[in-house]
Amino acid sequence: MKKIAIKLLSALLIGLTLPAIVLAQTNTINPPTDGSDPFGFGSKLDNVAASYSPQTTVPLEQRVGEIISIFLSFLGVIFLILMIYAGFNWMTAGGDEEQITKSRNTIRAAIIGLLIVIASYALSVFIIEKLWGA
């Protein structure tokens, strides 16, 4: 049972990260006419380097918002994993009432956790708007 769960989580992780690696876009539709950079990598890399330079100042509320967004996104991924895990356990229970009850409790706890995450996001947006007037 644990081997199947590990394989399922591994497939989920690979499925979530692989498209970001493989589906990189290039500027092949409108390549530059001077022939200096046929795939358009230079301008994109220059933009990335300019946005991460030490001279660029980011307002505090934007940085706090980004940190909160990253943290809440991570919690959303945990919710998704818990729902898949509980659904998998429920489907493979084979009529075992104890395992079905455990799966129901896991789903219930995941949904309650998701509601708490949504409420905390709404509260943080409200507080940041009131503090900084964004």
Brief summary of the model shown:
This protein has 134 residues and is mainly α.
Word description of this protein:
75% of the residues lie in helices and 0% in strands. The model has no long low-confidence stretch (mean pLDDT 76). The longest helix has 36 residues. It has 134 residues and is mainly α. The protein is elongated.
Taking Cα atoms only, what radius of gyration do you get, to the nearest Å? 22 Å
The total of beta strands comes to 0
In sequence order, what are the helices and strands, one letter per element?
HHHH
Oligomer: single chain
β-strand percent reads under 5%
Helix count from the secondary structure assignment: 4
Largest sheet: none
**Unreliable runs:** none
Mean pLDDT: 76
Distinctive features:
134 residues; mainly alpha; 4 helices; 0% strand; elongated
Strand and helix layout:
Layout: H1 2-22, H2 41-51, H3 60-91, H4 97-132
Helix pairs in contact: 3-4
